[in-house]
Write a structure and sequence with these properties.
The complex is a heterodimer of chains A (about 110) and B (about 120). Chain A is mainly beta. Chain A is about 0% helix and about 55% strand. Chain A has no helices and twelve strands. Chain A is globular and about 45 Å long. Chain B is mainly beta. Helix content of chain B is about 0%, strand content about 50%. Chain B contains no helices and eleven strands. Chain B starts with a strand and ends with a strand.
Chain lengths: ~110, ~120
Amino acid sequence: AQSVTQLDSQVPVFEEAPVELRCNYSSSVSVYLFWYVQYPNQGLQLLLKYLSGSTLVKGINGFEAEFNKSQTSFHLRKPSVHISDTAEYFCAVLNTGFQKLVFGTGTRLLVSP
Amino acid sequence: EPEVTQTPSHQVTQMGQEVILRCVPISNHLYFYWYRQILGQKVEFLVSFYNNEISEKSEIFDDQFSVERPDGSNFTLKIRSTKLEDSAMYFCASGGGGGRNQPQHFGDGTRLSIL
């Protein structure tokens, strides 16, 4: 069975500082990986995805993530965060044999001035 | 940009009543999904729907739940005889025709409160 682990439930950071949100997954087969963002009282918005090819993927709002197969990780990074990046971030995995997304528990990013 | 729309945004229902949550997926998408998020917990898969039938469902999706695509545009989730533990945010998602690995696009959710 697949699983996704987001070790940090909350990450406080100052504006314009860099940030990394960690995601590790477990799966016995090939996977597709996604990061979604959830702003207060809104749905899940796709930030970026890894399907194949280059292991460094760039998404919206200046975010990027690197797929590391040997470490089974897909950490999300941004070199300089804004107040508006305050939100909940979810890592998710899609098993190539199935259709359902399996989500991590989420990381709340808190950006302060 | 096309989006998934869900109605209502908030539904309050008495325990034991039936509730129908409605979704309009992105028009050219072929795969449809329901997920739920109990307050403070992770987003959980409920069911996927393709070619007018359920293609996969989780253990949460028991006989109390059903899905339907009644008219080619709406995608509904029905919960019969609601229980207190059904209180959650329910998200509809749809995926493109490029295959099952294409990103799923989510609506803003329906917050279901069972009293």
